[in-house]
Structure prediction request, 482 residues.
Amino acid sequence: MPPSRQTKIVATLGPASSAKAQIRALRLAGADVFRMNFSHGSHEDHAAIYRNIRALDAELGRPIGVLMDLQGPKLRLGTFAEGSVHLLAGARIRFDLDLTPGTAQRVAIPHPEIIGTARVGDTLLIDDGRMRFRVIAAGADALEAEALTSGTLSNRKGVNVPGVTLPVSALTAKDRADLEFGLALGVDWVALSFVQRPEDLEQVRALIGGKALLMAKIEKPAAIQALDGIIAQSDALMVARGDLGVELPPEEVPGLQKLIVRKCREAGKPVVVATQMLESMISAPSPTRAEASDVATAVYDGVDAVMLSAESASGQYPVEAVEMMARIIQRTEADSLQRKLMNAVDPKSSQTGTDAIGTAIRAVSSTLPLAATVTFTASGETTLRIANQRPHSPIVSVTPSVAVARRLTLVWGVRSCVSTNAGNTDHEMVAEALAACRSEDLDVENLPIALTAGSPFGKPGSTNLLRMVWPEPAIVEAASAA
Prediction:
């Protein structure tokens, strides 16, 4: 059934949800986009999942978006002779490049980028911040550090250096191979991990070559410093709060989430809030009240999508997690305060016909109840710009491109339809708009629609038409006959 909500749901697929029947259940529960996490699984695993998604896409007759999430570089400790060591706060240890198994006195960090960049006073976080160290001496091939917390270090735990921009490419050899594979499959979105600077995105965009849209994951403090440039270089952003919260104090993350969402909304770029949204549902059939509030907060801010990770990939209640997230979204969007808070952000409009029409649609939909706003689009840009205005009506996007329709499933309020029947005449466009609305169970018999298109039809960037279509019997009969 069509969604009765505007905020989208991204569900990660994994061991608990990779079979076709499971994917179908998640889709019917409310998932709009499926995420394939390339940190786990083989190419064969991902190919099987992708085939299942596309089979479901064909079965249901509705576009489904697919997001591939690249792993990015993983910076880790070396190994210990005994597998692990226990250190007390105040203990000193040497981190070097020697791959010899470590002891309580020294261990390898086999990453010259860290050894050569960290300076005295910098903090090293190990095992997602469970162990913290302060650098007290820095040399060309080693760091001397003091433990700030007591705890255990064990083999190959992750290392973070908060506040330091590391000379590390966001794209590893594994990522290159995964990217080539994912693009060959036909993924719609590519999420890039470990983004620190706008230049990280330029290289990946060149490799993508227009075959998919590019999403920057904001998970490093360095990315916050370069946020405006990263937004400009990306097609969408993901607020990856788990990794971001490792390198930053927890109390800073909520404010940064709001900052990122606001800047994306202003720039007209879709934004996804991710990580730990309903984490207790990995092992419990219902979330905590705090988690429900967390999802609602993102909806109040007007994000395009919220994401489930382990909840749907490996949890015990994947379908229930999607259903719960959908219910929270629906209840929040029904609150009159939600639109007031969402509209506190004023999108920056450019001096173009598309943005002028989008602004007009926002005004019309707040004055007049509409069954839908129907956008005819070749590239998806018209739909994106109008969705960024957050009109009161559902947005039905009609495009001849299957790829464009699938990409738009991530975007707030958009219901994607594929059609090559719009033609060039006014009558044909109206008939196709009404048919698309009916396929979404929208009430065009009793409410008008706003229709946007460009002339000549099908030419990207030519949006110059806004028409109101009223539910007149003659038009209804013509649309039904078509």
Notes: Residues 43-60 form the longest helix (18 residues). The chain has three domains: 8-72+169-334, 84-160, 353-481. The CA atoms of residues 244 and 250 lie 9 Å apart.
